[in-house]
Structure formats: structure tokens, C-alpha cells
Amino acid sequence: MPLSLQSPPCATLSASIRKGRWKTLAAGFSVTPLPAVNFSLRRSIPRILASASSSSSPASSSLEAGENNELNAVSAFSEIVPDTVVFDDFESFSLDRGYKKEISLRCKNSLPHKFPPTAATVSSALLLGICGLPDTIFRNAVDMALADSSCAGLETTESRLSCFFNKAIVNVGGDLVKLVPGRVSTEVDARLAYDTNGIIRKVHDLLRLYNEIDVPHDRLLFKIPATWQGIEAARLLESEGIQTHMTFVYSFAQAAAASQAGASVIQIFVGRLRDWARNHSGDTEIESAIKSGEDPGLALVKRSYNYIHKYGYKSKLMAAAVRNKQDLFSLLGVDYVIAPLKVLQSLKDSPAIPDDEKYSFVRKLTPETATHYHFTNKELVKWDQLSLASSMGPASVELLSAGVEGYANQAKRVEELFGKIWPPPNV
């Protein structure tokens, strides 16, 4: 049985922050690249759309019924997902603005709770944030993991820290399941990104721990980097009925291969591809989009959406790293859009004008128009490791590698931190 703690072990880290050994989170510490605390939800989750029938739902309780604003207008086409996690003593913990992103915190009273999260991701970055804050509703979840006797009794330091990590991420995930109506996506250790069997074992371990705290399988996604090994792991996990969430998708080949594997959610980072294109060249997929007058990130979402719907794959497409309203309006119809709070606020504050010359409230992506989209024979192959590797350009190779490295470094930092603060008081 886990022990009850009188003094939280994360206090050790808080003390070191005060002593200057760690930068405070309020001032920000950079991780390269630092992933988003993202939100992925099911079709059944209410949109941020006010109506008489949905006004009682957590996702829409902050909006007045019948309010005629841009947020309601765009929510008729896509699930709009707030890019935030709400703590009890801080308004938000937002983690995505590109490759180099500082963790930012807004005090509770600085922004009203207008956009409560509808679903969430639990990650190593989130664990670092929890241990770096003076007090959050998730601290006990981490403390209880570090006090777990089944982990403490393991013989090697490596196995003990890995056990603590698994327990902590599942405990926090279990708390998030109680707080959001949608699914909770659980990050799978990126150090296993090139090990199919390792990913599967890790997911099975995490799922077993979720079973122990009675979290239903249909409330969970497992977030896996879109390497070939990760895609293959997703195929095998989905065949078992385990839902997967593919991340770091930066090329059509990755999106198509993940679709063929049956991944439940495929996440494309729109803004990060745009950033890469501004400073690099030599990627034929990106250059083809630019030559056609398209933004490379938006073009990838469009092609992937049309591929999924034209050929009947079950995957849902998530557009992340959306930087502004124009991005969002260009993607209307995609399954999910992760939008920063500033974009949501701008949408909510702007009245919906049907004939607006700048923003058109027209669904850009539909299953019907997807049937007319043309794909080349090269794009319609049965994807395997060789064809995927040969089709990924320098942008997707570099961004995928950087994302995996960033996630892996964060996981390592969590275990190092747990090694410093274990054993906690009273253990």
C-alpha cells in the first residue's frame, strides 16, 4: 500500500528553486523542443459551442447561449480545443509555441476561466511543471507515486526510477480523467521511439496501472512519436483495441502510414513546418506547397485530411501549433484544432459577420470534397519502413528527430529529479 505523506517530496525541488539552482517557472525555463500540453478529444465531446442543450457542459459553460461570435461560428465546423491545463492555483500551463518554448504560468486572477480544457495530455514536461510549482492539485499524485512500496522494493536504481515515472504519469493521468470530459493522452517514453516492442510493453505497463485505478480504456490515448517503429507499434496496439495518438507528424508519408496503421489521432504541427520553411530549403514537399502558393503546414493538413477521408481510414486529424485566426479559418472542417488562448479570446470577442472579407465562415475540408482530391501512385503505396524513409524530406526528418530528443531529455530529467528527491519523508 502506498504511504500517506505529511510533507510533499517535491518540496525539495521547490527549495532548490528558491535557492537559485533552478530557474523559476514563472521566469521560464527553456526546453528544446518543448512539446505542447495538448488536448485530444472524442467526437462525442461537446464543442466550445453555446446552445440551450449544451450550456451545462464543462466545455461550453463559459459561453452565453446564442452568443453570435466567431468562436461559435468556427465551432460548427471543427472541434476547437483550448491549449491549456488548468491548475487550482494557476490559470494555465501552456507549452507550445514552436521549437524553443518557455513554460509560462498565468496567475489565477489574470484570466477568467473562459476556456476550460475539454481533454488533456499527461507528459514528462507536465510532471516537471508539477514538481516546480509550490502547490497544485496534482502534487499528491506525484507524491503517492514516489511513496509506492512496489517501486521502492525494486533492486536496481534504473527499474525503481522507471517504476516511479510510470506511477506518477498514470496517477496524474487518472486525476485528469476526473477533471476533463474527453480523453487523456498519455505520453509514451520517447526513449523507446525506435523500439516497437519497447513501446508496446510500455503501453501495456501503463494500461495495467490505469486498470488498477479503474480508468476506462475508452478515456485513454497513448501518445507515440511517428517514427516507423512508433507507427508499427500503433498498428499492433490498435489491433488490440488500444487507442493511439501519433505525434511529430511533419510529412504526408508519416500521416498516410499512420492512417494505414489505424492510429486513432494524428497530430500535425502547422506552425513548426512554417518556421522550418522560413529558415531552410531543400525539402521537395515543402517547396511544392510554397510553389502552389500554400503554407506548408496548412497544405499538409489538407492533403492528410483528404487522404484519410477519401480512402475511409478511421483516423482523426488534429491540427496543432496553430498560430493565428487565419490558420484556424483555413482549416475549418479538420477534426480537431488546438488553439492558443489568445486566439480563442480573439474569436470570442469578435462578432460573427457572415460576409466578412477577411475571414470566411466556410468549411474548407469536407469528406465530400476529399473524394475529388487527386493522389499520385507514389502516394498510394502500402507504406513500409523503406518507403517511409525514402519519402520523408529533411524537414520531417529534422523535426521528428528534434521532437523525440526533446521528449527523451524531459523523461530523463524527470527520473533524475525523482532520484534526487527519493526517498520522500516518512518512507
From TrEMBL:
Q: Does the keyword Cytoplasm apply?
A: yes
Q: Give the highest taxon in the source lineage.
A: Eukaryota
Kindly provide the name given to this protein in its UniProt entry: transaldolase
Q: Which Gene3D superfamilies match?
A: Aldolase class I
| Pathway membership | Carbohydrate degradation; pentose phosphate pathway; D-glyceraldehyde 3-phosphate and beta-D-fructose 6-phosphate from D-ribose 5-phosphate and D-xylulose 5-phosphate (non-oxidative stage): step 2/3
Q: Which UniProt keywords apply?
A: Cytoplasm, Pentose shunt, Schiff base
UniProt-listed Pfam families: TAL_FSA
What the entry lists under CDD domains is as follows: Transaldolase_TalAB
Q: What is stated as this protein's family in its record? A: Belongs to the transaldolase family. Type 1 subfamily.
Q: Which PANTHER family does the record cross-reference, listed alphabetically?
A: TRANSALDOLASE
User: What's a BP term from Gene Ontology annotated to this protein?
Assistant: pentose-phosphate shunt
What Gene Ontology terms describe what this protein does at the molecular function level? transaldolase activity; zinc ion binding
* Enzyme category, top tier: transferase
Q: Per the record's keyword annotation, is Mitochondrion included, yes or no? A: no
Q: What is its EC number?
A: 2.2.1.2
**One GO CC term on file:** chloroplast
